[in-house]
Design goal:
The complex is a heterodimer of chains A (about 110) and B (about 210). Chain A is α+β, with helices and mostly antiparallel strands. Chain A has a domain of about 80 residues: hypothetical protein PF0899 fold, CATH 3.30.2320.50. Chain B has about 210 residues and is α/β, with parallel strands linked by helices. Chain B has a single domain, classed as Rossmann fold. Chain B contains eight helices and eight strands; from the N terminus they run E-H-E-H-E-H-E-H-E-E-H-H-E-H-E-H. In chain B, strands 4-3-5-2-6-7-8 form a seven-stranded parallel sheet, with helices on both faces. In chain B, helix 1 packs parallel to helix 4. The relative contact order of chain B is 0.18. Strand 6 of chain A pairs antiparallel with strand 1 of chain B. The complex binds guanosine-5'-diphosphate (GDP), magnesium ion and zinc ion. Magnesium ion binds next to helix 2 of chain B. The site of magnesium ion has 4 residues of chain B, from helix 2.
């Protein structure tokens, strides 16, 4: 479970941005997460509250935007939706879909004051 | 509202990039060995070190939550090893590895093995700056592990299937295992070895030699 390190990573970004952009508090954090990023949204929420306690983001709202997975089939060349890494191509049934979206794990925006 | 669009693992990725360019400048081949606990990473390393000691300068970074047992096992072979204890941490990160390579004092053109914490999930997400991730799977774990832990097998360039000396005693479906691994990673290379009997290790040494040469 590396959700703890992910949350520590989020806090580091918040602290760095607070210094750069001159805000004191973070009230909301919008994350974009793909289904192939290897993190569980629920576990992340749980860790987030614990990790930000006593920081500039204590009590901040965590909003998780789930990005759909997408890929290109290497066999039929179609752009296809991907839910799991080992799913076969929904068009031709072949394996070997190259992932183009779904591995995202990033902070999109912040609500600050 | 402020837009920031930042990768959460960006910090780790920066440390990893620094490690990678340092390795490149020194001509060091760094490999990140990942697997579940007990698949035979340390056994494969001690055996490989004994067989390769004359060929390249070697060093090992050992990651475990607790104890220095594995670094002690490596040092018993005469090769320098540094133990990182991650405590509650379930993976090595690029920052820890950066500190480790400072204190190891690596020779140019050496071969550095990084044995990650035994865990088939979390180490997949943390680039250490290695040239390749090598996933080790032992036949006693069952053939479906590449499907159950696809992120790890997807991130690896090489899968080493270990403990093949035990195949006669198990109902492990070898062909199905290889098929599952290629489903999650069509380009993965696969070697079958036994760290115990030494079977298949020449192919592993050949794989290393090809990468040490380039
Ligand atoms: N039969 C057999 N046992 C092995 C082999 N490789 C490792 N082992 C055993 O598997 C156990 C775990 O090995 P270890 O190297 O500590 O695994 P690690 O946790 O991945 O570092 C030990 O009891 C080893 O002796 C092998 O090729 N064949
Ligand atoms: Mg070990
Ligand atoms: Zn297709």
């Amino acid at each position: 479970m590396h959700e703890m390190s992910i949350c520590e990573g989020i806090l580091q970004v918040l602290e760095k941005e607070a210094g750069r952009q001159g805000f004191q508090r973070v009230k909301g954090v919008w994350l974009e997460i793909g289904p192939l990023a290897g993190v569980e949204a629920e576990a992340l929420r749980f860790c987030f509250d614990a990790v930000v306690r006593g920081s500039l983001a204590e009590g901040a709202q965590l909003e998780i935007i789930e990005i759909p997975g997408q890929g290109v089939c290497l066999q039929c060349d179609q752009s296809v939706p991907v839910r799991q890494r080992f799913d076969p191509c929904p068009v031709c049934g072949g394996y070997g879909v190259r992932i183009t979206h779904g591995e995202e794990l990033r902070i999109k925006e912040l609500e600050v004051e | 509202m402020v837009q920031i669009e930042q990768d959460i693992l960006g910090k780790n990725d920066q440390y990893a990039a620094a490690n990678r360019s340092w390795f490149r400048a020194k001509g060091i081949l760094a490999l990140n060995l990942v697997s579940s606990p007990g698949s035979g990473k340390t056994s494969l390393l001690t055996r490989s070190i004994q067989d390769l000691k004359g060929r390249y300068p070697l060093a090992v970074i050992e990651g475990d939550q607790q104890t220095s047992h594995d670094a002690d096992r490596i040092r018993a072979t005469g090769v320098s090893a540094l133990q990182i204890n991650t405590g509650k941490g379930c993976h090595l990160d690029a920052h820890m590895v950066g500190h480790a390579i400072e204190s190891l004092g690596l020779a140019e053109k050496s071969l550095l093995f990084i044995e990650n914490v035994g865990n088939l999930v979390c180490p997949a997400a943390f680039d250490l700056g290695e040239a390749h991730k090598v996933a080790i799977l032992s036949v006693t774990e069952g053939e479906d592990k590449p499907l159950k832990y696809p992120d790890m097998f997807h991130a690896a360039d090489l899968m080493i299937l270990n403990k093949i000396d035990l195949l006669p005693y198990l109902d492990f479906d070898l062909a199905l295992c290889l098929d599952y691994a290629r489903r999650v990673n069509p380009g993965i290379e696969i070697l079958q070895v036994s760290a115990r009997s030494g079977e298949g290790l020449d192919a592993w040494y050949g794989w290393l030699a090809a990468r040490m040469a380039s």
